[in-house]
Amino acid sequence: VQLQASGGGLVQPGGSLKLSCAASGIIFSINTMGWYRQAPGKQRELVATISSGGSTNYADSVKGRFTISRDSAKTTVYLQMNSLKPEDTAVYYCAWGNKYTNYPTDYWGQGTQVTVSS
Fold first, then answer.
1. Could you give the CA distance from residue 63 to residue 11 in angstroms, rounded to a whole number?
2. What CA–CA distances, in Å, run from 116 to 27, 83, 85, 88, 110?
3. Helix, strand, coil percentages, rounded to 5, for the chain
4. Tens-place pLDDT, residues 37-84
5. For residues 95, 66, 99 and 42, what is the CA-based torsion angle, rounded to 10 degrees?
């Protein structure tokens, strides 16, 4: 599975940004896609996941502000990020798991930088 992420950029605090990640290759019908992020000097952390069945999972720090979704073909995952804060600044990575899991890690996309700053 290959993952291609896009949509990062610079946004002011309180602003919004939408990330996309398209999957290609051999795709199993049962899977989980997700987003992680890594800020400078910190460990990579899970942001949100969505299974092929539609179940979602969010980190407490983004609940109510971020929304993860998938397209009808279930090969593209989106992360709508609202009410962004400076602490959301990080490199965001999309990930794929070949099963239902809260921590998809079988495949990784390239990171996309999100910077929240005035």
1. 19
2. 34, 10, 6, 7, 20
3. 5, 50, 45
4. 999 999 999 999 999 999 999 999 999 999 999 988 889 999 999 999
5. 50
Handedness of CA 27, 33, 35, 41 (dihedral sign): negative
Distance CA 118, CA 9 (A): 13
Please give the single-letter amino acid code of residue 80. Answer: Q
Mean pLDDT score of the chain, rounded to an integer? Answer: 95
CA distances from 13 to 99, 117, 118 (A): 36, 6, 6
Cα dist from 92 to 41, 73, 107, whole Å: 14, 23, 14
In sequence order, the β-bridge partners of residue 17 are 81
Residues 52, 97, 81: CA angle, nearest 5 degrees: 70
**Residue 82 belongs to what H/E stretch?**
none
